[in-house]
Amino acid sequence: MGAGVEAVKQKLSSEFGRVDFREAFDRNTDSTTLAFDAEGQIYSVRVSREFDDDFLSGTTVSLRDLIHVLKRSPGRKASVGTAEIIEA
Predict the structure, then answer these.
(1) Which end of the chain is more exposed for a tag (fewer CB within 10 A), N or C?
(2) Whether the Cβ atoms of residue 50 and residue 82 lie closer than 8 Å to each other
(3) Under a CB-based contact definition with an 8 Å cutoff, are residues 30 and 14 in contact?
(4) Which residue(s) pair with 37 in the sheet?
(5) CB within 8 A of 29, min separation 6: which ones?
């Protein structure tokens, strides 16, 4: 786990408060999935390895819109890549 996953956790914690993340690495998609319960919902965020590895370089997407994308997603799922954050 690198700086990108930690930054996503911090962003989520700043919005949802203290949550217990269930973390799993998916070899098929080469990404880390963070699942957690908050506000009576189950949320899931997939963080690409590229985002995780490149976060400190400053060349990745900003996490500014993560919460908005996550909450508007019907399945409460989002995917964070180097270029964009999308509903998953």
Answers:
(1) N
(2) yes
(3) no
(4) 42
(5) 46, 48
H/E element, 50: helix 49-54
Give me the residue spans of the domains in the chain: 3-87
Instruction: Return d(Cα 77, Cα 74) in angstroms, integer.
Output: 8
Q: CA 75 to CA 53: how far, in whole Å?
A: 27
CA-wise closest residue to 48 among 65, 64, 61:
61
Residue with tokens 């911090």, as numbered in its chain: 10
Q: What is the pLDDT along the chain (88 residues), one digit of tens a residue?
A: 689 999 999 999 999 999 999 999 999 999 999 999 999 999 999 999 999 999 999 888 999 999 999 999 999 999 999 999 999 8
> How far, in Å, CA of 84 to CA of 42, rounded?
22
Q: What is the pTM of this model?
A: 0.93
